[in-house]
Write a structure and sequence with these properties.
This protein is α/β, with parallel strands linked by helices. It has 15 helices and 15 strands. It folds into two domains: 4-30 and 291-399, Aspartate Aminotransferase, domain 1 (Alpha-Beta Complex), CATH 3.90.1150; 35-288, Aspartate Aminotransferase, domain 2 (3-Layer(aba) Sandwich). The structure holds pyridoxal-5'-phosphate. It catalyses: (sulfur carrier)-H + L-cysteine = (sulfur carrier)-SH + L-alanine.
């Protein structure tokens, strides 16, 4: 197990919120001091633009910004010029989908699933409506997982795009994405991987996955909000049109023409998210100093511990007891999740209530909303106990009525 006492010393939020039980990392992670300090360093000591200034401060800011790209590239085993900084997973996935508006046509097929976060399926619903390409959904198995077998059932020679999540934000399942990518490539389809929930939990290697595009957000891996990553294979990024035009993305401009810079810069029009990228770099370094093996062992143990206790409680329904990551999605029978969440909130236990921007899987579960607790590196057994106490208190409270 990780030494949570030591880890919490790195997270100033615990100093300011003594009783905090934070179980909403699925929505956004807490931020360590290393990240806050690095963002502060940029604003306190540099605070200037990148790529433009012909003076020391700007060179230094540019170095930090581009070093961040190197850190991200190493983190996912990509090449430097395959890493585009964006606002987040949503922006990255939309950017890719937009670029297929001019590529797809009637007769083409797109595969997605009911397990997707809205950011992974809505951009393709839009593309499908505008191009008349057919949107197919992988049938989930009884547990709600995407399986290779079910994927084969919807894969056809007309499949041009596969957009799937690597780890579900509701069920915590890991998709067998590597095999799916191999099969998709056999019919010439590109695969876009939503790695927003995978990046905090497991090593990502875009080369061994052989995915065509992959997206994740900084704020879910201990980094700042407002920064994300789009990975794309170099030849695909070369073909992809920018979705925004403006400063710094162009080599030369004449009245009736312009030549874009090479990747990744042609996708980063305007002043980029400098502090975000620099902060993200620190977050990745911090995460790597802990290591994914230790992160996985820690969250799995807390998950086991919590589930064991939940098992003994009558009046709840857990929808993903076989979750592969530290996500527990459940309901207290007869109690609306938002009503339940207010009792957790009173006890300073932060969990999520709602459809988690994934209405299709929530409907698949036969629910209108669920409660979700995510376990991560700064959680300990005491957090799990206080979570369990809140579950019991909620049941007792609503039983009165
Ligand atoms: C699986 C998944 N995909 C995409 C997103 C969207 O991420 P962002 O809001 O950072 O763009 C989320 C966020 O909850 C997510 O969990």
């Amino acid at each position: 197990m990780l030494d949570v006492k030591v880890i919490r010393q790195n997270f100033p939020i615990y100093e300011h919120n003594k009783d905090l039980v934070y179980l909403d990392t699925g929505a956004s992670s807490l931020k360590p001091k290393a990240v806050i300090d690095q963002v502060d360093h940029y604003y306190s000591n540099l605070g200037v633009n990148v790529h433009r200034g012909v003076y020391g401060l700007s060179y230094e800011a540019t170095d930090l910004y581009e070093e961040a790209r190197t850190t991200v590239a190493k983190f996912i085993n990509a090449n430097f010029d395959e890493v585009v900084f964006t606002r987040g997973t949503t922006a990255s996935l939309n950017m890719v989908a937009q670029s297929y508006l001019s590529v797809l046509k009637e007769g083409d097929e797109i595969i997605t699933s009911e397990l997707e976060h809205h950011s992974s399926m809505l951009p393709w619903l839009n593309v499908s409506k505008k191009t008349n390409a057919k949107l197919n959904y992988v049938k989930l198995n009884d547990e709600g997982r995407i399986t290779v077998e079910a994927f084969k059932d919807v894969l056809t020679t007309n499949t041009k795009v596969v957009a799937l999540t690597y780890v579900s934000n509701v069920m915590g399942y890991i998709t067998p994405i590597e095999e799916i990518i191999k099969l998709a490539h056999e019919v010439g389809a590109v695969v876009i991987v939503d790695a927003a929930q995978a990046a905090p939990h497991m090593p990502i290697n875009v080369k061994s996955l052989d995915c065509d595009y992959l997206a994740f957000s900084g704020h879910k891996i201990l980094g700042p909000t407002g920064i994300g990553v789009l990975y794309g294979k170099k030849h695909l990024l070369d073909q992809m049109e920018p979705s925004e035009y403006g400063g710094d993305m162009v080599d030369f401009v004449v009245k009736d023409n312009a030549k874009w810079k090479d990747t990744p810069y042609k996708f980063e029009a305007g002043t980029p998210i400098i502090s975000g990228a620099i902060g993200l770099s620190s977050a990745i370094k911090y995460l790597m100093s802990i290591g994914f093996e230790a992160i996985e062992a820690h969250t799995k143990e807390l998950h086991r511990y919590t589930l064991e206790k939940l098992k003994d409680i009558k009046g709840i329904e857990v929808y993903n007891s076989k979750s592969d990551t530290g996500i527990i999605t459940f309901n207290i029978i007869g109690v609306h999740p938002h009503d339940a969440a207010s009792i957790f909130d009173k006890n300073k236990v932060c969990i999520r209530a709602g459809h988690h921007c994934a209405q299709l899987i929530t409907k698949w579960l036969g629910q209108i909303a669920t409660l979700r607790a995510t376990l991560y590196i700064y959680n300990n057994y005491e957090d799990c106990d206080r979570f369990i106490d809140s579950v019991k208190e909620t049941i007792d409270f609503f039983n009165q009525f």
